[in-house]
């Protein structure tokens, strides 16, 4: 970071975050088992404007963990340009158009695979920062509502 770098205004951070959600393909997804054992997995995602759709085998620890504990942490970007999301999940499946958009974006179509459901994640908290000068004011969404 250069000393003259100024933190981005909230509106710019939100715009940059929405761009990442729309254009990035993969995320690191962290879940925990009922006994608290963490599990980290890279997964492709689709942003619908309100939810993220992920897909993984129902036998994968991520899916098993989310079946018991519907909370996850999802991170996209790099260490110096990160979007960090806290979300809750549910088994709601995407519309046919959303499923097709997922397959196109990810380059992978889970629909023909047996036991490979989509997982819908609804953000409850979103933070974004690039450098240490942006850690203050990094909160963009709280309790599922974008901050003004």
Which SSEs are present, and which pair or pack?
Layout: H1 10-23, E1 26-32, E2 38-47, E3 52-55, H2 61-68, E4 71-78, E5 81-90, H3 96-106, E6 118-129, E7 139-142, E8 145-146
Antiparallel strand pairs: 1-2, 1-4, 2-3, 3-6, 4-5, 5-6, 6-7, 7-8
Structure characterization notes:
The chain is α+β, with helices and mostly antiparallel strands. The protein has a single domain, classed as Electron Transport, Fmn-binding Protein, Chain A (Pnp Oxidase, Chain A), CATH 2.30.110. It is built from 3 helices and 8 strands. It has helices at 10-23, 61-68, 96-106, and strands at residues 26-32, 38-47, 52-55, 71-78, 81-90, 118-129, 139-142, 145-146. A 6-stranded antiparallel β-barrel has the order 1-2-3-6-5-4. The longest helix is centred in the first third of the chain and has 14 residues, at 10-23. The radius of gyration is 16 Å and the shape is globular.
